[in-house]
Amino acid sequence: MRKHRTTYRRHAVAALLAFAGAQFGISTVAHAETASARPAAATSAPALATFQAIRQIDAGVLNVGYVDQGPADGPVVILLHGWPYDIHSYIDVVPMLTQAGYRVIVPHLRGYGSTRLLDAKAPRNGEPAALAADVVALMDALKIDRAILAGYDWGARTADIVAALWPQRVKGLVSVSGYLIGSQEAGKQALPPSAELQWWYQFYFATERGAAGYARNHHDFAKLIWQTASPQWRFDQATFERSAAALENPDHVAITISNYRWRLGLEPGEARYRELETRLASFPAITVPTITLEGDANGAPHPDPAAYAQRFSGKYKHEQISGGVGHNLPQEAPRAFANAVIEVDHL
């Protein structure tokens, strides 16, 4: 009788988790075998949430894979992930925002997950203006006039660019590590040795050996970046693998290498984005309401908040997030990130 009762309870808990996740378009998967496949006396691994449904839409030069959750008529929030992560950086943030009444869009950036370039012959271009143009094209395709943009790493840079060049489309901005707009000219400037060391992978990618190495080892390379960028974050293997799957996109390696080579002036980018990059090279001010965030244990290269505060000419606030929080701030401190999104909406 005890054996049957234990099995019943295990299945009941699994059903409740599945029902709860379905309310927010999130499913749960076991870290290992399912309960029904195990002996009754075994202890079940905790369930790992995943996004249940990925939608696809043609937007600009891409067919974009994206999550769309929350009330259709709610204020829109677009969450942008970084490298080498994926949409699951926001797995805990999304339900917090949908519960607050927001419609939340989380796209796979170009080179990640199910997002694909429509033209098989198009350059696998990773320059920053291209990623920003992708977001505007997605908003157009989804008929979204204005949205709150929020992100970290590549996602923060992309959100910064959209806010700077298309401020009429941005209701508010949440940017981890602040103002990340750069230029090829700025990329030519030498940094102090300790700062150059932090960018070791950028110089590695500048070589053919680096491109070949990332193609061969991008899975383990990504895990190393997770560990060094967030030295106090104790993520487990299942959490990493959930995101690492998105790096199997056939364009991921080429777009990653392009992005970092462009920063060093080793790739010219595409002519269609040249005017945008010229405007960005002047480091335009961001005028929309903005909250910048920084973790107290960010192991990735990031500027001092005092160095970029003047770049935000509208309503502005900076918050330091404590508790050993590293580079992947929305996944490591989801409540703080979600609160910042809600707060910037009323800043």
From TrEMBL:
Q: Which residues form the signal peptide?
A: 1-32
Gene3D superfamilies recorded: alpha/beta hydrolase
Domain (AB hydrolase-1) ranges: 75-206
Which Pfam families would you find in this protein's record?
Answer: Abhydrolase_1
Q: Which UniProt keywords apply?
A: Hydrolase, Signal
| Any one GO molecular-function label of the UniProt entry | hydrolase activity
Organism domain of life: Bacteria
State the SUPFAM superfamilies in the record.
Answer: alpha/beta-Hydrolases
Please give an example of a GO cellular component term from this record.
membrane
| Name assigned to this protein | Alpha/beta hydrolase
- State the species of origin: Rugamonas brunnea
